[in-house]
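Late entry, written up from scratch paper. The run itself happened at the end of the previous shift, but nothing got recorded in the book at the time, so transcribing now.
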Amino acid sequence: MSLRSNLVYTALFAASAVAAPAAWAQVQEPAPPAQEYPSPAAEAQTPPMNEAPESNTAASAQISDQKIEQFADAYVAVQTIQEKAASDLQTAKEPAQADQVKQKAESDMIAAVEKSGLKVDEFNQIVETMTANADVRERVAAKLQERQGGG
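Output as recorded:
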């Protein structure tokens, strides 16, 4: 997958990931069904009670507040570009015209990410981290809320 199409995919995913930050922040894995008599294989995989579960704070701490700020700036710009492109695609009458809209949107999104001070791969990495890390999702959502609230 090319870097350009990866950005488009990532940006689309980011839009859905950040669109409902409160819901994402509260998403939890469902508990496995209770077993009255667990199998020996299941017992062998169960960690001892004195071991702490892995923490998401290490990955979150690796993303600086500055990077979160830059990501929020890029995200807002990318979302605006996507909305315009979606509108333009609805009015495109020919496949060639639609392709041109898509290419321009991709170029504009890359430029917007780079203008924010991030590299495209940094933007994509933050999106990936958001999917696995509630703290990062909450930090990004807070920055986006600041921007929507006049920040």
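The longest helix spans residues 65-91.
(Scratch paper discarded after transcription.)
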